[in-house]
Amino acid sequence: MFFNEEFETLPRPALEALQLKRLQATLERVYANVPFYKASFDAVGIKPSVVAHLDDLQKVPFTTKQDMRDSYPYRLFAAPMDEIIRIHASSGTTGKPTVVGYTKKDIATWSELMARSFVAAGAHRGDIIHNAYGYGLFTGGLGAHYGAEMLGASVIPISGGNTKRQIMIMQDFGSTVLTCTPSYSLFMAEEAQAEGIDFRNLKLRVGIFGAEPWSEAMRAEIEAKLNLSAIDIYGLSEIMGPGVAIECIEAKRGLHIWEDHFIPEIINPETGELLPEGERGELVITTITKQGIPLIRYRTRDITSLTYEPCICGRTHARITRMSGRSDDMLIIRGVNVFPSQIEAILVGIEGIEPHYMLIVDRQGTLDTLTVQVEVSELLFSDEIKVLQALARRVEKEIKDMLGVTCTAKLVEPKTIQRSEGKAKRVTDNRKL
Amino acid sequence: MKVEQISIFIENKSGRLAEVTRILGETGINIRALSLADTSDFGILRLIVNDGAKATTVLKESGFTVSKTEVVAVEVPDRPGGLSAILQTLDREAINVEYMYAFVERCGENAVIIFRFDETDKAIAVLQAQKFNILDGSRLYDV
Fold it and tell me: A181 with A166: CB under 8 angstroms?
């Protein structure tokens, strides 16, 4: 089943011709409208016309998350503000978020790609889509919502949280498709079990899970506990939001990236060199239809590989493998992106805290946990328990307020956190993914 | 009139208390009184020793966080109501006890209680006005 059969099954030569035409138009557009791109192209002595073939894209400089921060909030936009109809943002390392804007056409494109993704996952008109991605600045909720509406399904905009109510609604409303983070789906399964509700009695058939890394083992667990077919979806707000790539239910082997809108490349994250098909490296994406904020060779920092092998589903679009990690130190905790440097910035803002801290990420049951270990220096130390406890609570509160992540602050003796020469090891990730 | 107490931050894991006492023992420091306040994650060990300065130095060298606090040692008649009389006096003057613990040894017929007050000097004045006996540090360190 397809949502847009013509484009989803376009023969490769036609698809690549379309990509080239759209890429050239995008390069012209950003060079003319975005001073950042004019400067970065000029710096290496190229004009948009340098790209005569798709292979020529390698000659164009990368764009990074730092470039987006430096352009905060709107300076990478390629469309005038009176054409921007939606703004989303994701958290940034310095407290400033990364901002993206969408024109009317961008929203239509996103909705279509998300609708295509629903169909690829096995959803259809008539489905009741229980959308438990968060609604708000985060792209997950509204992205899936608009796709569900374009598909013509019934969408329940439940957003995140209040798990008991979620389960009641899934049960009573007859939800057939669930969209949320994979870890939240397992949390729901636990809650349901505690309530004596058996997922086998629910109508859920498909679950579309993303926004955090997960594994085949987790897929097996989710499928068994929630009694549905679990599909991996990929997206990032910088590029669009959810629906950049998705597994097809026919194969469940790799995520089709919608190549008529995005050009994927895999590079060596150290050298920036292009890697051949099948090799693991950092995913780089160029948007070729976006108007609001087109991104050229955007370094996603996600580690994956790319294959152009034909898929049994009939889609001609390349597939990326399940994300296996990051080329930077970003952590994804319960779907929230967290950089250790953000936590460091908060800690040094609290008087007396030395920059000796350690982040321990674990998974207890089905939910990610974050423990922030802070060494108790003489400046912090008090011989009264309540003073030290108040300090730990303050660390927890400031991290929650600034980053939206619940953590446990644990005071430890000095010098217990490993010192290392050069780059300190700040994170221990005990999650087995 | 004040007694010097050293406080040590201890993580709630096995062997830490033993490590502190081992270091002090090997340095020839005698523990005169102690109290341990604890939570599920950490504890604060409070000690009165015969040589506070030396104890602080050796513990810091071993990587512990140590601080000094001034506390007050009060002689308490060793009979029913002895402690109550002191606490009532303090309550009337609105002085708060942050924590307190008993001294290991007695002083003649009396017990000795170590107090940490929110207002140390005021507490000393109030207690002395009521004729409670406050012990000087030098008497405790080398009992």
Answer: no
**Residue B9 and residue A384: Cβ atoms within 8 Å?**
no
The candidate with the shortest Cα–Cα distance to B143, out of B102, B100, B105, is B105
Token reading at A56: 């020529």
Angle at B49 between CA B44 and CA B52, to 5 degrees: 85
Rounded Cα distance between A145 and A129, Å, is: 9
CA distances from A17 to A10, A164, A264, B68 (A): 11, 50, 15, 76
Q: How many structural domains comprise chain B?
A: 2
Q: Which of residues 31-70 of B touch A (CB under 8 A)?
A: 37-39, 41-42, 44, 46, 63-67, 69
Q: How far apart are CA A71 and CA A92, in angstroms?
A: 13
Which among A328, A348, A369 is the end of a domain?
A: A328
Taking the CA of residue A341 and the nearest CA in chain B, the distance in Å comes to 25
Check whether residue B59 and residue B77 sit in a common domain: no
- Domain check: are A214 and A343 in the same one? no
- CA–CA min distance B36, chain A (Å): 10
DSSP state of B95: P
Task: Mutation target for A interface from B42, B98, B114: give the one with most A CBs within 10 A.
Answer: B42
Measure CA A58 to chain center.
24
Report ipTM for this prediction: 0.81
Q: Do B99 and A382 touch (CB under 8 A)?
A: no
Cα–Cα distance for residue pair A128/A12, rounded to 1 Å: 34
Decide if B63 and A378 are in contact by the 8 Å CB cutoff: no
AA identity, residue B83: L
CB pairs under 8 A between A and B: 51
A181 and A321 in a single domain? The answer is yes
Query: If phi over 0 gives left and psi between -120 and 50 gives alpha, with beta otherwise, what is residue A380?
Result: alpha
Q: Which residues of chain A make contact with B7, given a CB cutoff of 8 A?
A: 381, 383
pLDDT tens-digit profile of A156-194?
Answer: 999 988 999 999 999 999 999 999 998 889 889 988 988
CATH assignment of the domain containing B25: 3.30.2130.10
Structural domain span for residue A366: 332-429
Q: What's the distance, CA A375 to chain centroid?
A: 32
Q: What is the pLDDT of residues A91-146, one digit of tens each?
A: 654 557 899 999 999 999 999 999 999 999 999 999 999 999 999 999 999 999 99
What does the DSSP 8-state code read for residue A23?
H
State the amino acid at position A239 in one-letter form: I
What is the rounded distance in angstroms from the CA atom of residue A218 to the CA atom of residue A212?
A: 12
**CB nearest B11 (choices: A378, A385, A413):** A413
Same domain, B84 and B25: no
Q: How far apart are CA B95 and CA A356, in angstroms?
A: 37
Find which of B3, B8, B9, B17 to mutate to test the A interface (most A CBs within 10 Å of its CB): B9
A134 lies in the same domain as A96: yes
